[in-house]
Design brief:
With 160 residues, the protein is α+β, with helices and mostly antiparallel strands. It has helices at 20-24, 39-46, 94-107, 136-159; strands spanning 13-17, 25-35, 56-60, 63-67, 88-91, 110-118, 124-133. The radius of gyration is 18 Å and the shape is globular. 25% of the residues are buried.
């Protein structure tokens, strides 16, 4: 039996966010995944460094990987420092990995990381989304919709 999914994940401290993803992709479903990190990577993230702007996730050999995420070297890491753009293993259960693989292969969807954050227990997590790429007209429609929502909010505040 599948565990009920919360509407929003428990994000205590957001480290990196991919704001452009919501514009470029129509987001279908969200997943929370742990990341297998080295010690100096965790320290860099705790200092608020890291970027997932050009990163993506892929399923390879029954494992999920975060590719091209940039976590810069830790300043006091000396010879134990990590490689900044190495692929990092995502910690998901088997059923979730199979579901992601099926969606990517059959429906032509993309795995996009939306944010990296620390949860209440202090664990580094990635918010992954199954998304479909938007074409230029769809992006214009999305932008119009966002502007209208913003305008609506302003009108309600003024006359509310």
């Amino acid at each position: 039996m599948a565990r009920p999914r919360p509407d929003a994940f428990d994000k205590q401290k957001i480290v990196a966010e991919n704001r452009r993803a919501r514009f470029d992709y129509a987001i279908d479903e969200k997943f929370e995944a742990g990341i297998a990190l080295k010690g100096t990577e965790v320290k860099s993230l705790r200092f608020g460094e890291g970027s997932i702007a050009e990163s993506y996730a892929e399923v390879k050999d029954d494992e999920a990987w975060l590719v091209n995420a940039n976590i810069p070297e830790f300043s006091h890491g000396n010879r134990f420092n990590h490689e900044p753009k190495r692929p990092r293993k995502l910690l998901l259960n088997r059923r979730e990995i199979n579901r992601l693989r099926a969606a990517v292969e059959r429906k032509g969807m993309t795995l996009v990381p939306l944010s990296i954050y620390f949860n209440a227990r202090g664990r580094a997590k990635v918010e992954l989304a199954l998304a479909k790429g938007r074409k230029a007209p769809d992006k214009r429609d999305y932008k119009k919709e966002q502007d209208w929502k913003r305008q609506q909010g302003r009108l309600l505040r003024q006359h509310g």
